[in-house]
Amino acid sequence: MRAWLVEAGVTIAAMESTSTYWKPPFYCLEEVMEVWLLNSAHMKAVPGRKSDVRDAEWIAQLREHGLLTASFVPPPPIRQLRMLTRYGCS
How many domains does one find in the chain? Predict the structure, then answer.
């Protein structure tokens, strides 16, 4: 997916945060492009029709028109420290 997006000239990726499923693609893509993690509640608050079939198109349109803001995702060193302290010895 990453190679395909880079080859297609994609410079910004936006994805909805769903449980922890967003983490692998986010971490993979953040190395090569700007990645936005979007809060589902914020997206639902934007007026307009949305269906599961057109989610990606809907997210792209909202992002393009400046109707969404990215959620804060700590930089890799902070995430690594958090994982270490979270799963360390107890």
Answer: 1
